[in-house]
Amino acid sequence: MVKQERALRTRDTLIRSAAEIFDREGFAVASLTAISTLAGVSNGALHHHFVSKAALTDAVEEAALARLLVVTDAVLPLGASRMQLLVDVTHRLAGALRGDVVLRAGFELSGEVSRPPHADLREWWRRWVEETLKQADSEGELRPEVTAPDVVSAVVAATVGFEVMGVREAEWLSADTVTRFWRLLLPTVVPAALLADLDAEGTCPL
Amino acid sequence: MVKQERALRTRDTLIRSAAEIFDREGFAVASLTAISTLAGVSNGALHHHFVSKAALTDAVEEAALARLLVVTDAVLPLGASRMQLLVDVTHRLAGALRGDVVLRAGFELSGEVSRPPHADLREWWRRWVEETLKQADSEGELRPEVTAPDVVSAVVAATVGFEVMGVREAEWLSADTVTRFWRLLLPTVVPAALLADLDAEGTCPL
Residue A1's pLDDT is what? Predict the structure, then answer.
């Protein structure tokens, strides 16, 4: 039992170390030796857990996806609109990308052309935004002249842009950047009556 | 003279071939052999032009920057607003990214963590957007409650998002995607009087 716990902990450490090396040096040039060194384990121990760099990378993406699901699986507070949920979750996502190297590495792997994505996080994110906006639309939270796909592409492009620019400059993932984006977008997206109830700063700060 | 012309042409072919291999396989794993093979020249000829992969990559970025400057150096038509210029140039940029592998590779190199950027195209683009919006602001083209930096971050994040998502799916760089983004953004950014004059589809289609 203790041995199994230790094995799980080593596996987690390896995933986190891989994410850190990917984030710092880039996935394609990251070496397994750099990863095992950072994790403080032998190359043999790494290969015991992951047969190849591909297997380890898939595990990083899976761990990142699990974290994305924690971000998006927010419970809609009683009486809150779908649009407020969307605003809140984009704030949570930006905060998580700032602080969580595994989530960040997972998103970066989405754009890596040297391997096919195993769990494409940007695509998962796009689908969640699409689903949420469809619900918002069916609940009358979008202006009649706006269609859900219009808003999906603006929100997904901007958030992916924040993520990509945030790799070099953390300010792009600040709560302030996300708030300013929503202040520009919300007035053309939601009816005036709903606008007054929405908080562009988000209602559940991290 | 003929010899010099041929040398210049070979250099251009190598830059274009490098961009194609970077775009297809990723910069970090791209081999000089794959590039010289695609260019139809020997490894020796490649090394005659570029002493290293780093030198060739710098040349790709420089060529991409020259193309970005062609996109942004649009002449403001008589009577046109700065905001219309911004809309038009984002359309031109999306069109150029769809069709020009060198420009696309240059933008992708901006996000490459395994090397410091030589000419960071995303940063160049951010500066051009910032400069244009400052001018728009000083000419009274922004609503009083909106500040230029708010619009800069929304426009830069969305366009970088289109570029990044466009690597996997060209639809993100379509004129339709760009038009729909501006239709959502413009009403909160410019005064009502100017809005009627602006064309979200752009006034000079490629």
Answer: 60
CATH superfamily of B2-60: Homeodomain-like (1.10.10.60)
Q: Which of B11, B206, A183, B185 is nearest to B198 (CA)?
A: B185
Residue A102: name the closest of A168, A31, A15 by CA.
A15
Report the residue of chain A nearest B185, measured CA to CA: A185
Select the CATH number that applies to the domain covering B61-195 from these four: 3.40.190.10, 3.40.50.880, 1.10.357.10, 1.10.10.60: 1.10.357.10
Dist. CA B30–CA B13, nearest whole Å: 16
Q: What is the mean pLDDT of residues A4-8?
A: 89
In angstroms, the separation between the Cα of residue A114 and the nearest Cα of chain B is 5
Q: CA A128, CA B165: separation in Å to the nearest integer?
A: 16
Location of each CATH 1.10.10.60 domain in chain A: 2-60
Q: Do A164 and B161 touch (CB under 8 A)?
A: yes
CATH 1.10.357.10 in chain B, residue ranges? 61-195
In this structure, are residues A175 and B137 in contact, taking their beta carbons and an 8 Å threshold?
A: no
Compare all CA atoms of chain B with the CA of A155 and give the residue at the minimum distance: B158
Closest residue to B114, CB basis, from A25, A126, A146: A25
Residue B68: pLDDT band with limits 50, 70, 90: very high
**B206, pLDDT greater than 70:** no
A157 inside 8 A of chain B by CB: yes
pLDDT per residue as tens digits for the range A58-93: 999 999 999 999 999 877 777 789 999 999 999 999
Residue of B nearest to A165 (CA): B157
Chain A CB contacts of B158 under 8 Å are 154, 157-158, 161
